[in-house]
Amino acid sequence: MKRTTLSLFAGATALAAITGFAAVSTPDATGVDTARPAARLPVERTSLLCPAPSTSDLAETTYTSFTPVTKGADEKGRAALAAGAPEDGKKTEKPVVQPKAPGTPVTGSTSGADAPALVGTAEGGHAPGWTVQQTTEVAAGTGRGLQGVNCTAPDTEFWFPGASTATDRTDYVHLTNPDDSAAVVDIELYGKDGALKSTVGEGITVPPHASESLLLSTLSDVEQTDVTVHVGVRSGRVGAAVQALDDKTGGDWLTAAADPAGELVLPGIPKDATAVRLVLFTPGGTDADLKVRLASPSGSITPAGHETVHVKAGMTTGVDLGEVTRGEAGSLVLTPTGGSVPVVAAVRVVRGEGGEQESAFIPAADPVGARATSADNRAKRTTLSLAAIGEAAKVKVTASAGTEGGTTATKTYTIKGGTTQNVEAPVPAGLEGAYALTVETVSGGPVYASRTLTGEDDDVASFTVQTLPDDRGTVSVPNADEDLSVLQK
């Protein structure tokens, strides 16, 4: 790497684009190490992308925007979410959502099959931890039920284990480009025997401020129940998500799994799940052997008949775990039985029986870290799941005011190590409308979290699950008296 010396102001500007910075060790004249922890400052700009919500004319979509209050954040700022990207400080179209002040959620909506992908930017006080939830209700047809997705930041690589090219599935990969220049993307598909042959997925151009939706079955004519989708960006950056629609069990969004790692946590499998299918893929050249555990309310359990799973290098592996939670909250924990090999994973979860079934996906997730937020919650329809996989942890959960009224409420929980708990999340007093839940790790080990939102009709098992990773609302910045020559690029 090339070493570059930066001024304090240049260094601070460069750091605004990253999520962390190591403390600098600077000995004084006596040789004593005087390193001090880097300060954490709120980010000043955040970008989010929401995929086009549905192909159904019967779809109704709600967008809920929320920025948690962040100490030290700029009191001024602006944010908007629209069909287009910022140009000279203005939006190309009227915003679908115009966020309010931090601490106050706001909603917007669209309907029908022509609702576009949205691009949003928040600056100043609106930026730290800005979260937008896209929730779509589809009344009938393929993909019926509740579909939810957290709008995500643009990136250059994504892994989606759990997709499918089977005849009863209609899966699309959605790509959204927020920038002024075209992005060039490669899409690779991996089945049970390795890579699926396709040249159509190479060199896909996504125009500036535009989105592309590609049906997976048009990228390869090989039918596979379990497929891992890899999206790699040659130039530019995109937002990516997979919309998985099933003829019999509705559908939902499959969001990108956590980066390949030797140990993975898939948090918050609904306690009434009637079927759970684990899908794994290792992108390297070495097979992986993993121990499978379920972190339940009472502790760690090994699922009978599924103590371990073998994942062949470059091949997608699917395992039916059945009703693994057996009526209790649970999170899957995957650890190597020997040497650690990077793996990506997700589970497909089904609720309900017979003609009243619905499906959703839970990818392997990063921990909550300092803070995470779920923007769209409804009274009596929200389940918050918290998992402390190692040591015990104390967690604070804050419910915001509602979009149409109500006052904030806060609860603190202690999660025993090795367990998953479905906690009774706080609800704003006098709630009207939707509200946000902010989860903060107070002390102890890492916490993993997810939020399940169910449909309004209790007779139908419609639901959607979103994991809650760290919102990266702050960045570590070196102290003013530290040597910034260690910054490299």
Explain the overall architecture.
The chain has 489 residues and is mainly β. The longest helix has 8 residues, at 8-15. Strands 9, 11, 12, 13 and 15 form a 5-stranded antiparallel sheet that branches. It has 2 helices and 37 strands. The model is unreliable at 1-33, 85-91 and 483-489 (pLDDT under 50).
Please specify the SSE layout and strand pairing.
Layout lengths: L7 H8 L23 E4 L2 E6 L8 E8 L10 E6 L23 E6 L6 E7 L6 E8 L6 E6 L6 E7 L5 E9 L5 E9 L2 E2 L8 E3 L3 E6 H4 L7 E9 L3 E8 L3 E5 L9 E6 L3 E9 L6 E9 L2 E3 L6 E4 L4 E5 L9 E7 L7 E10 L2 E8 L7 E7 L4 E7 L4 E7 L5 E3 L1 E7 L3 E5 L5 E4 L2 E10 L2 E8 L8 E5 L6 E4 L12
Antiparallel strand pairs: 1-37, 2-6, 3-5, 3-7, 4-6, 7-8, 9-15, 10-14, 10-16, 11-12, 11-13, 11-15, 16-17, 18-24, 19-23, 19-25, 20-21, 20-22, 20-24, 25-26, 27-34, 28-32, 28-35, 29-31, 29-34, 30-33, 35-36
